[in-house]
């Protein structure tokens, strides 16, 4: 009986050592998985917010009466959308306002392209990117009979 107890005691000690090794190997992998998941979620959220900012910019530009006013309204709208949704970046808003040159009665569109750099350095692990650039473009029709 004493040899049986001695073997079970030795087996129990060996199992505890194996568990410590498993935790030492798996813990960094689990942390890397969580960091990767957080990065993916932040990029996906950032892409959705930038897409909404581009849509808002195109819409606000399309209802302006002049190209100059459209540019100001689009920039303001994009900044407001990004700020309200918690995405803090310096967006670059590029507009295609060629639709404003069409004669009254002809359909035209405004395109807004918003580019934003999403910071990832605060959640990324070594070897992961520190930022990701997201660009989205949206179009909005210009009312062909609006006053100019």
Short synopsis of the structure:
Helices cover 53% and strands 20% of the residues. By secondary structure, it is of the alpha+beta class.
Strand and helix map with partners:
Layout: H1 2-62, H2 67-84, E1 92-96, E2 108-119, E3 131-142
Antiparallel strand pairs: 1-2, 2-3
Helix pairs in contact: 1-2
Tell me about this structure.
The protein is an alpha+beta fold and 148 residues long. The protein has one domain. The protein has helices at residues 2-62, 67-84, and strands spanning 92-96, 108-119, 131-142. Strands 1-2-3 form a 3-stranded antiparallel β-sheet. Helix 1 (2-62) runs antiparallel to helix 2. The longest helix has 61 residues, at 2-62.
Distance between the termini: 101 Å
Please tell me how large the radius of gyration is. 28 Å
Q: What form results from the Cα inertia axes?
A: rod-shaped
Q: What's the overall average pLDDT, rounded?
A: 84
Q: Characterize the main sheet.
A: 3 strands, antiparallel
Order of helices and strands: HHEEE
How many distinct beta strands?
3
Task: Name the beta content range.
Answer: 15-25%
- How would you describe the oligomerization state of the chains in this entry? single chain
Entry keywords:
53% helix, three-stranded antiparallel sheet, 148 residues, alpha+beta, rod-shaped
């Amino acid at each position: 009986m004493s040899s049986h107890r001695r073997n079970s005691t030795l087996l129990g000690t060996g199992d505890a050592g194996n568990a410590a090794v498993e935790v030492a190997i798996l813990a960094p992998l689990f942390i890397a998985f969580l960091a990767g998941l957080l990065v993916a979620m932040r990029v996906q959220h950032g892409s959705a917010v930038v897409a909404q900012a581009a849509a808002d910019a195109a819409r606000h530009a399309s209802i302006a009466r002049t190209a100059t006013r459209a540019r100001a309204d689009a920039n303001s709208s994009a900044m407001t959308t990004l700020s309200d949704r918690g995405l803090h970046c310096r967006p670059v808003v590029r507009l295609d306002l060629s639709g404003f040159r069409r004669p009254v009665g002809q359909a035209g569109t405004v395109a807004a392209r918003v580019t934003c750099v999403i910071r990832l350095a605060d959640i990324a692990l070594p070897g992961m990117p520190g930022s990701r650039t997201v660009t989205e473009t949206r179009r909005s029709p210009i009312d062909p009979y609006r006053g100019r």
